[in-house]
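Human:
Focus on the backbone:
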Amino acid sequence: MSETNLAPSAADFAPLHQKAAAQGLSRPSLSYWQDAWQRLKKNGRAVASGWIIIAMLAFTVLGPLVWQVDPATQDVDQISQPPFASRAARLVAPFTPWRPDLLATRAEGAAIDGEATTQAVRLHWAPIPDAASYRIYRNIFPVEPGAALGLPLADILRPEQPWFEDRLDLVPRTYHYAIVPLNAAGARLGPVIPVTANVERVITVSEAEARELKLSSPPVLGEAVQLKLHPLGTDYLGRDMLARLMHGARVSLFIGIFAPLLYVLFGVLYGAIAGFLGGPVDQILMRTADFVVALPFLLFMILFKIAFGVQPGESGIAPMLVALVLLSWPSTARLVRGQILQIREEGYISAAQLLGARTNYLVLRHMIPNTMGVILVTLTFAVPSAIFTEAFLSFIGMGVAPPTPSWGSMSNEGIKTMLSHPHELIFPAIFISITVLAFNLLGDGLRDALDARMRSRE
């Protein structure tokens, strides 16, 4: 029998090519975050919400750089104007006092002397026999029998003075005047005398030059000029709505993003410590969290405003931020604590402890990173909650106060003119709704993408 040569050869160390196993792989190996990103991109609602949030941040940060209009500047010629309203005005001579005593004849009933413009509407009528005085009303609706006559403008106590000049907050629209003759006892005498005036917007050359409007050289009386553009209209003080929405977004999004970042971070650390240490420490920490949950938010908001010395009519941004941070963290702490209690029993945690890992290393290196999915989802849901809280507090007058713009305070101002000028309420309400909805849909998408249990169902 010959001896067998057991010496190893070069062929024994050649790599084995497992082609069959390689062909069995359906897709390349992905990490947890890569797989979550792939799943998130398949969620159309979450992706669209993400782009909406990015657009809203660009609107907030870059918008004021493009639309450089002071949100506090008042355009008195365009008050409560709807979006893309007519900006045309006619150049006229400066206002001159009226001499109604020089009128040659009086109209039967009532008439307008000259043109009805935003400078003045001049009414004159034929004297009524036995009338001791006249009362003048103005309405934006036609005068109907038995209906309200409108805003009382003046009482003409001299019956020999059958004329009146209206210069009270005139805007380009149709006004319906009612002239009511009264007897010596103040009772109505005879029928109401109606008169309708179609008011035209006018502006003087000096006013146009002061507003830096585009004029011909030299300016010609009677030519049409265009007032400043307000794409989303103006509010009841003539302030640009687009500029106020941009600057208001800074306040709303600052509180809505910065406050959740602070209290979610605190809640993560608090819950991680409670869950990892367990025992009596866990009980004490969580009972403290239960006590914080029971504290009334509005009461502490009022107390913080007093402590910060915020006077009535002043913005309470700092008290609102402090109240949100101090009272909103328990829900995050509870959620993270539950995750840490589960992770603490994993084998790799026991192995790290056997190797001498300290508590802070285990919490910061292993436990919190493994709860990042839950933390991100909690943050995305906390942001719309904080935005809505700021809007609610500003709406009831406890948050941001005028003239500082925020979406909540703008809604509070807009509800006063909701019936006559709805755009002042609709625009801030739309921005609040879209932002809150976008963050909620993004949170739903992140929850589905980061939840490992969702993978088993596919």
In short: The first strand starts at residue 88 and ends at 92. Residues 180 and 192 are 5 Å apart (CA to CA).
